[in-house]
Design goal:
Blueprint: E1 9-11, E2 18-20, E3 24-29, E4 35-38, E5 46-51, H1 54-63, H2 65-70, H3 76-96
Antiparallel strand pairs: 1-2, 3-4, 3-5
Helix pairs in contact: 1-3
């Protein structure tokens, strides 16, 4: 009898949707207070998950959701960095197909 592997689910802080962890982008705050994108999902620190779509990122920016979840101030330029990361990842995935 084949057992199905459990897929880890995470909740998007902006939209509230539950999605598989691989479809989410983890944003992490280190002990030093540095905010960064965690593509591996394994960096240590306080993390928040965002859906990999522009609407979720723009909603998080508009409502300042990441700052409240991570407990740190987040500059507008960081949201631009997130959008660039998502677009780059989409291009790479298209090239693989």
């Amino acid at each position: 009898m084949a057992t199905r592997k459990k897929i880890p689910m995470r909740k998007c802080v902006a939209t509230g949707e539950m999605k598989p962890k691989k479809e989410m982008l983890r944003i992490v705050r280190s002990k030093e207070g540095e905010i960064s994108i965690d593509p591996t999902g394994k960096k240590s620190g306080r993390g928040a998950y965002l859906s990999k779509d522009e609407e979720a990122v723009l909603l998080a920016k508009k409502k300042n959701i990441l700052a409240s979840h991570l407990g740190a101030a987040i500059e507008d330029s960081f949201y631009d960095e997130i959008l660039a990361f998502i677009q780059k990842e989409k291009k790479e995935n298209k090239q693989k197909l």
